């Protein structure tokens, strides 16, 4: 029986919790195992995300390579067409018989080359726009998947 100083009441039959070392050891072991499992799951997810990102970059690089080849071929074709048009124009200028014929031929050539240049620029612009969309799609898809995974977690 214990007495509290300044009071006349006594405390009886107070149960104190007993410390069981085997239970504490088991709880620590369970917490450690749970931590290891969570770490394994996190590593597995990280590895999967890294592989997805690597595949997206590989796909993007392959698309960039394909696009580079297509742009190069279209540029070479445009340069060839412009060079052939220039040589044909020079041959026509050599055959000119009067200054008025020269200026008429020159004006027609310049107008035609401007029109051709606009078409060539639009063609290259379309190829580059499509290439940008195609090249960014794998990375954009991987990023959206990762965001969905983060929202779900």
From TrEMBL:
It comes from the Bacteria. Residues 7-20 have a biased composition (Polar residues). Residues 1-33 are annotated as: Disordered. It holds the Pfam family Phasin_2. Residues 51-141 form the Phasin domain. InterPro entries: Phasin, Phasin_subfam-2. NCBIfam families: phasin_2 (TIGR01985). This is Phasin. It comes from Rhizobium loti.
């Amino acid at each position: 029986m214990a007495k509290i100083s300044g009071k006349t009441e006594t405390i009886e039959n107070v149960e104190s919790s007993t410390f069981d070392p085997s239970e504490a050891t088991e709880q620590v072991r369970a917490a450690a195992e749970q931590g290891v499992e969570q770490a394994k799951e996190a590593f597995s997810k990280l590895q999967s995300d890294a592989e997805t990102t690597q595949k997206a970059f590989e796909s993007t690089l392959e698309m960039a390579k394909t696009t580079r080849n297509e742009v190069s071929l279209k540029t070479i074709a445009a340069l060839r067409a412009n060079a052939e048009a220039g040589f044909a124009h020079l041959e026509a200028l050599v055959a000119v018989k009067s200054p008025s014929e020269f200026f008429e031929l020159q004006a027609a050539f310049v107008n035609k080359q401007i029109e051709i240049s606009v078409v060539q620029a639009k063609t290259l612009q379309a190829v580059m726009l499509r290439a940008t969309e195609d090249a960014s799609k794998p990375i954009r898809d991987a990023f959206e998947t990762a965001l969905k995974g983060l929202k779900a977690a």
